[in-house]
Each structure stands twice: as structure tokens, then as C-alpha cells.
């Protein structure tokens, strides 16, 4: 893994982002490519098409499966996520996404659901508003100097997201925080112990 964070050249970041799908495939994880395509290409449109943007129970389960397929499979968390009431997921995610672009509120609101921590909450927020929220991944956080050891807490995510947003601004108008996070993940080569929530 090279030190992408220290490289300010947009071309280096674009090259890393362009490798994202190949790195997903290289993980050798069943269903990861399928889940990743759904997460990046279908879910954002599904959420945005609703009169009141939200995620459904099934979507929350699938994005949790996507998150775990990229890192560590935590069966207990998935059981907890599946145990959430459908109406509660819709109400909670509606409230959370209505709080966009607040840097903290959507993550805090979504994290009230069983089995949902800042990482899973960030996956939902990033699918809806990639221009504001990066997905919270430890492989990405480990590449950002000054953040310290990755901690799956709302406070750490707030610092992480602020750094990722700042880098997106530095790279130019066509970059979103979500794209920056994907480029850093691809740069890492994937695979690690992902977030516990």
C-alpha cells in the first residue's frame, strides 16, 4: 500500500478509485461484488426516489451485509439488525436522513437502531448523501494521519468524516467524501476487521 493520503495529485487518487471494483473482486468474498454494485448503483436511487428519503428494513439488512462482507462478518450484529421492526427502521431512517447535512445527527439517530453503530449508520448516510458522508471503514481511517487508533465511536467518525470531506474539497469539485473513502479503501487492498456496528 502506498501513502495515498500524502499525495495531493488528483490523478493518483483517480487511479486508486479506478481500482476499486478490481479490489472488491480480489477479496474473494461470496456476494461482495453483487452487494457492492447494489450498494453503490441501486440503493442511492431507491432512497432518493422516496417522498421522504429513508431505508427499508430489507435495505438496512443488505447494507449491513455489504459492510460485513468488506470486513469482518459479525453474525450477532446482523441478527440484531434483522430484529429491528420495519416501521421503526423507516421512522428512524426518515428522521436521520431529514437531518442531512448535519455532520453528526444522522449517524447518531441511525445508531439508535439495534445492531447499528456509526459504521452501519454511515453506510446509510453515504448512500443517500455521498457529498457529505463517507462510509466509516477502519482501513480508510488507518490511512488518515492524526486520527489515532481507529475507534468505532460517533466522536471518531466525526473527526474521520471531517478529514475525508476536507480532502474531497482539496481534490476538486468532482470529488465527494464517499469517492475519497472508496479510493483509500482500494489503496489499502481491502480486507481487515471492519467496524463492529
Largest sheet: none
Shape: globular
Provide the low-confidence segments as ranges.
193-197
Helix content: 55-70%
List the helices and strands in order.
HHHHHHHHHHH
Assembly type of the shown chains? single chain
* DSSP summary, beta strand count: 0
Query: What fraction of the residues are assigned to beta strands by DSSP?
Result: under 5%
**What gap, in angstroms, lies between the N and C termini?**
26 Å
- Tally of domains: 1
Structural class by helix and strand composition: mainly alpha
Computed over alpha carbons, the radius of gyration is: 15 Å
Figure out the total of helices.
Answer: 11
**Average predicted local confidence, pLDDT:** 94
Organism: Longimicrobium terrae
Protein name: HhH-GPD domain-containing protein
Layout of strands and helices, then pairs:
Layout: H1 10-18, H2 20-26, H3 32-48, H4 57-70, H5 75-82, H6 86-98, H7 105-110, H8 118-128, H9 138-141, H10 154-171, H11 177-188
Helix pairs in contact: 1-11, 2-11, 3-4, 4-8, 10-11
What's this entry about, in short?
The protein has 197 residues and is mainly α.
Notes on the protein architecture:
This protein has about 200 residues and is mainly alpha-helical. The chain has one domain. It has eleven helices and no strands. It has helices spanning about 10-20, 20-25, 30-50, 55-70, 75-80, 85-100, 105-110, 120-130, 140, 155-170, 175-190. Helix 1 crosses helix 11 (about 175-190), helix 4 (about 55-70) packs across helix 8 and helix 10 crosses helix 11 (about 175-190). The protein is globular, with a radius of gyration of 15 Å. The protein starts with 9 loop residues before the first helix and ends in a 9-residue tail after the last helix. Mean pLDDT is about 95; it is low at about 195. This is HhH-GPD domain-containing protein.
Amino acid at each position: 500500500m502506498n501513502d495515498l493520503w500524502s499525495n495531493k495529485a488528483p490523478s493518483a487518487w483517480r487511479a486508486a478509485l479506478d481500482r476499486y471494483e478490481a479490489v472488491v473482486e480480489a477479496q474473494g468474498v461470496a456476494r461482495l461484488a453483487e452487494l457492492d454494485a447494489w450498494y453503490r448503483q441501486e440503493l442511492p436511487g431507491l432512497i432518493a426516489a422516496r417522498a421522504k428519503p429513508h431505508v427499508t428494513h430489507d435495505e438496512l439488512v443488505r447494507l449491513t451485509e455489504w459492510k460485513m462482507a468488506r470486513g469482518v462478518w459479525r453474525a450477532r450484529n446482523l441478527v440484531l439488525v434483522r430484529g429491528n421492526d420495519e416501521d421503526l427502521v423507516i421512522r428512524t431512517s426518515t428522521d436521520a436522513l431529514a437531518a442531512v447535512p448535519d455532520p453528526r445527527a444522522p449517524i447518531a439517530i441511525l445508531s439508535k437502531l439495534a445492531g447499528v453503530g456509526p459504521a452501519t449508520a454511515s453506510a446509510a448516510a453515504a448512500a443517500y448523501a455521498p457529498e457529505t458522508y463517507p462510509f466509516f471503514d477502519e482501513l480508510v481511517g488507518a490511512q488518515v494521519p492524526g486520527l489515532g487508533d481507529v475507534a468505532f465511536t460517533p466522536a471518531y467518525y466525526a473527526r474521520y468524516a471531517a478529514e475525508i470531506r476536507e480532502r474531497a474539497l482539496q481534490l476538486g469539485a468532482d470529488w465527494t467524501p464517499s469517492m475519497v473513502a472508496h479510493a483509500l479503501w482500494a489503496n489499502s487492498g481491502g480486507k481487515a476487521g471492519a467496524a463492529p456496528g
